[in-house]
Design brief:
One of its GO terms (molecular function) is diaminopimelate epimerase activity. Pathway: Amino-acid biosynthesis; L-lysine biosynthesis via DAP pathway; DL-2,6-diaminopimelate from LL-2,6-diaminopimelate: step 1/1. Catalyzes the stereoinversion of LL-2,6-diaminopimelate (L,L-DAP) to meso-diaminopimelate (meso-DAP), a precursor of L-lysine and an essential component of the bacterial peptidoglycan. The protein has 4 helices and 19 strands. It has about 300 residues and is mainly β. The radius of gyration is 19 Å and the shape is globular. The mean pLDDT is about 95. Bound molecules: the ligand N[C@@H](CCC[C@H](N)C(=O)O)C(=O)O.
């Protein structure tokens, strides 16, 4: 089967975008893995699928698969690319687009400067919502919030890693580091992910606070590995930093792939994320017949 696709990126977090507004392509996990494969497929961190609105109060549905083929709840950089995609293809003339995701409705808005601002909804801290099992851990207060001392799986380190846990629809753990350039992202990211305290896995953010309105961030993503940027990771890190008393309401997040601006007024307010969304190229790809969902 031959299918059309669009390759996009937002702050270097890259996507294969598929249009299912006229009908389902009938893809499974193996197809998504193939499309995300940088050697045999197109190559992407996530595969985004655009579908018709499932109800009258939204404009579209947007489905996200990680490069490992698993469907996930939310993707911030993808939301900006989704908005650019439906607008540039003439699928809508609206500047603000309401879209159904697995974990609720979000609303990207195309701005006059060419960037996209997304209302990502409010962050969630209830442990069952993340989900995170904190049973038996001595929560360590800091600012108006606190950190969990997480014992890393397969780690030689003596002291537990202090993490803040946040859900942006998808699960995030954020830890403070002195310098993201030397932070053990690739070593500790998988160790945090291996913790049975995250039954649905977790995205792991390493945050360096430069000042109250500027952080540097690297994220080891669930189902992918380290990416050049993670939109929900940027939201989670800023929310964590604000609650820990380290950051103001508006923060520029420097990632390896670009800058995202995050704003959060606190409590039940939604998190707003602003950043770029770019089409890289379009094409068609032949999907091999022998792909199996049981590799
Ligand atoms: N890159 C994304 C997040 C994609 C999903 C994530 N890997 C997960 O498994 O939750 C973003 O920009 O938010």
């Amino acid at each position: 089967m031959r299918i059309p696709f669009t390759k996009m990126q937002g702050a270097g977090n890259d996507f294969v975008v598929l249009d299912e507004t006229q009908g389902r392509l009938g893809l499974g996990a193996a197809h998504y893995r193939f499309l995300g494969d940088r050697h045999f497929g197109v190559g992407a961190d996530q595969i985004l699928t655009v579908r018709p609105a499932p109800s009258a109060d939204v404009d579209f549905e947007y489905v996200i698969h990680n490069a490992d083929g698993n469907e996930v709840e939310q993707c911030g950089n993808g939301a900006r690319c989704f908005a650019r995609f439906v607008h540039d293809r003439g699928l809508t003339t609206k500047d603000t687009i309401r879209v159904q995701t697995m974990k609720g409705v979000i609303a990207p808005r195309l701005t006059a400067d060419g960037r996209v601002t997304v209302d990502m909804g409010p962050p969630r801290f209830v442990l069952e919502d993340i989900p995170f099992d904190g049973a038996g851990l001595a929560w360590q207060p800091m600012g108006s919030w606190g950190n969990w001392p997480l014992v890393l799986v397969d780690s030689a380190q003596v002291a537990p890693l202090l993490i803040a846990t946040v859900s942006m629809g998808n699960p995030h753990a954020v830890t403070l580091v002195d310098n993201v350039d030397t932070a053990p992202v690739v070593a500790q990211g998988p160790q945090v992910q291996a913790s049975p305290r995250f039954p649905e896995g977790v995205n792991v953010g390493f945050m360096q606070v430069v000042n109250r309105s500027h952080i540097r961030l690297r994220v080891f993503e669930r189902g992918v590995g380290e990416t050049l940027a993670c939109g929900t990771g940027a939201c989670a890190a800023v929310v964590a930093g604000i609650r820990l008393g380290l950051l103001d309401a508006t923060v520029d997040v420097q990632t390896h792939g670009g800058v995202l601006t995050i704003n959060w007024a606190g409590a039940d307010a939604p998190v707003f994320m602003t950043g770029p969304a770019t089409t890289v190229f379009q094409g068609e790809i032949e999907l091999p017949d022998n792909l199996t969902d049981n590799p």
